[in-house]
Amino acid sequence: MSDSPSAVPTLGAKIAAEAFGTFLLVFGGVGTALFASNHFTDPGANSAVYVAVALAFGLTVVVGAYAFGPISGGHFNPAVTLGAAAAGRISWRDVGPYIIAQVIGGVVASTALVLIGTFGPDGWLSGAQDAGFASNGWGEHSPGGFGMFAAITVEIILTAFFLFVILGTTHAKRGTPFAGLAIGLTLTLIHLISIPVDNTSVNPARSIAAAIYGGVGPLSQLWVFLVFPVVGAMIAGFAYKALFDATAKQPKQL
């Protein structure tokens, strides 16, 4: 690999990669929830639906990580970007542009899903929107009827867990070339755990993208999925830097 300046992606390239990667994540994950299952449009739960949606989110991250990760780091998630900055992996000055690109990419993806639904069967789009458009939520908007504090707790814990895996597998010295696969499988596991609780966020951009088409209920609960994934990510970022990136002092040579 060349160390020339031309080999370093520009900020423009990075934010474009983040926008495309987040588009892929939302289009693939939320799209699967909406098109490949009836869980978010009809009453009832089906374990196969959970597995399909969990795999869809995980696979989009695997694909996106290998396609766009070498350019931008492959965050596709404002919480990941903030956690990476807390851990010293990216500059704080890049955080704003990354997050803007991620939100735009997610909103464009959900808008594309609405456009597709416009040409779907009669009543499909209105039914999907009345059911929340695969948005995150608690109480009556939780698949399992879990309350707000369950959603808060699971978002903090699982986002922190996600960041620990990301920071560990992408470490400059201790990382692995299979980081994208490990991260994608981790996101799959996270969805298997928490879809019944709150439809799984761990990603404010994903939550915004779905909620803007999900109606008043999801929008009124959106703040939880903006705040608490970030809380979990920041905790993990600062903790990883303190616990695992500290270097031991070498003894003085006599």
TrEMBL record:
One of its GO terms (molecular function) is water channel activity. The keyword Cell membrane applies. One of its GO terms (cellular component) is plasma membrane. The keyword Membrane applies. Keywords: Cell membrane, Membrane, Transmembrane, Transmembrane helix, Transport. NCBIfam families: PRK05420.1 (NF003838). This is Aquaporin. It comes from Microbacterium keratanolyticum. It is a multi-pass membrane protein. Belongs to the MIP/aquaporin (TC 1.A.8) family. PROSITE patterns: MIP (PS00221). It holds the Pfam family MIP. The chain crosses the membrane at residues 15-36, 48-69, 75-92, 99-119, 146-166, 178-197, 222-244. InterPro entries: Aquaporin-like, Aquaporin_transptr, MIP, MIP_CS. It comes from the Bacteria. It is found in: Cell membrane.
